[in-house]
Amino acid sequence: MRKKISVGACVVTVMICCIVTFQATYIGLYNRFEKKYLGEAVNTINTGTSTSSGTSSGDTTAETTSDFMKKATAKLAEVDSIYRNYYIDELDDDALIDGMLTGYVAGTGDKYGAYYNAEAFDTFISDLEGEVAGIGVTVIYNADYKAIEVISVVDNSPALEAGVQPGDLIVYVGEDKEAVSEIGYYPAINKLKGVVGTHAVFTAYRGENYSEAIEFDIERRVVDSQSVLSHVYDLDSSVGIIKISEFDGNTPTQFVAAVEDLQSKGCEKLVIDLRYNPGGELSSIVTTLDYILPEGPIVRIFDADGNEVKAYYSEATELDMPMAVLVNGSTASAAELFTSAVRDYNKAVIVGTTTYGKGCMQTTIPLSDNSAVSVTYRMYNPPFSDNYHGVGIVPDVEVELDESLAGKNIYKITDEEDNQLAAAVKSLDN
């Protein structure tokens, strides 16, 4: 393995046992989650009241639903009969049900809706909680070697205890030493995932020209996700850089810790990097912004009729530091709320390119068999500005990433190379 490493165009950040693609920003759940998350949508299902108008869902809705189900059931019965009589292979009833429900959600046109089978829903909950079963590393895909590259190791994790280091290149996975280059990135990630108490076995390379091979056999356990990474800016020690990959249950604590650590190192200004941040959990973004913003509204939530149904507020304490926020077209949802909120309060300069434009909320409702469905049901506005849904947020300072960096993973771009970061740092002096 002699080629000098450079990461390809695919930008993927993965917490082993936690592939992070958060889109839900609002969630109502049963039992152990109902105290933490809003249970309005679940209660609505149980009582039969309407979320949009507040009136009872009467006979008309029931009749319409009944007509739809009659048509759907009749057609499904026909197709099922054909397949059971003619199909040359065996049918998996569970897979069929999962496929039908996935198709139903797709048929609604709900761009952000989703169906989760029981296993996927359990992973979804773990992701939101920021607590996962795994080894505790954050990784990206290395296109040159077609391998898994470790970019950080979580504190107090089994990976840290075993000696895994940032920069390690995972080339083989499993006891059979299957090559990541042959089975593919995500199948390899799946082989590193697993149940608490079981073992992740893999081979990593490090050192000059990746000449040193190290065998790892690590027992999986519950670890905290790492959504916040920070460092002192290489070109100016007065500037601290904080990158937030998503907003999960651990983000607020990790963000505060990062700020305090950077302040202890002499940093007087901050750049908060939200490029490729897809959003996350409502309570996470509210808590994080409460730490930053002065007293006032953080987010206002509206129903389908445009009625404000909820608002969250910040307390008087605020973070008094010059700040810039880095964004791009993959900055979405809760990350856009963060961006818009700090600008509404004149707390930060926004730098980069126009954001994705997702200003709607999903509630995820468990079904009777521990599966779940996520449905878009609310819109949310920043503290004072308009909703950015479908249009995105235009930065105060617009700057495209240099073309020479287009094929490089964002986590592998150095401070010296990153022209967007340089523009953000420069904005702090204005």
Please describe what this structure looks like.
With 430 residues, the chain is α+β, with helices and mostly antiparallel strands. The chain folds into three domains: 58-84; 131-224, PDZ domain (Pdz3 Domain); 228-427, Alpha-Beta Complex (2-enoyl-CoA Hydratase, Chain A, domain 1). Helices cover 29% and strands 26% of the residues. It contains eleven helices and 21 strands. It has helices at residues 40-47, 59-86, 93-108, 118-129, 158-162, 180-183, 185-192, 251-264, 282-292, 334-344, 419-427, and strands spanning 14-15, 18-19, 114-116, 131-134, 137-142, 147-153, 169-173, 178-179, 199-206, 212-219, 221-224, 228-232, 239-244, 269-273, 296-302, 308-314, 323-327, 348-352, 360-366, 372-381, 397-398. Strands 1, 2, 5, 6, 7, 8, 9 and 10 form an eight-stranded antiparallel β-sheet that branches. Strands 12-13-14-17-18-21 form a six-stranded mixed β-sheet, with helices on both faces. α8 (251-264) runs parallel beside α9 and α9 packs parallel to α10 (334-344). It is globular. Mean pLDDT is 83; it is low at 1-59.
CATH superfamily of the largest domain: 2-enoyl-CoA Hydratase, Chain A, domain 1
Can you tell me the overall shape? globular
CATH names the topology of the largest domain as: 2-enoyl-CoA Hydratase, Chain A, domain 1
- Biggest sheet statistics: 8 strands, antiparallel
Query: How far is it from the N-terminal to the C-terminal residue, by CA?
Result: 47 Å
The parts where pLDDT drops under 50 for at least 5 residues are 1-59
So, CATH architecture of the largest domain? Answer: Alpha-Beta Complex
Overall pLDDT = 83
Q: How many structural domains?
A: 3
Summarize the amount of helix as a percent range. Answer: 25-40%
The helix tally amounts to: 11
Helix/strand-derived class? Answer: alpha+beta
Task: Output the CATH class name of the largest domain.
Answer: Alpha Beta
Q: Strand content of the residues, in percent?
A: 25-35%
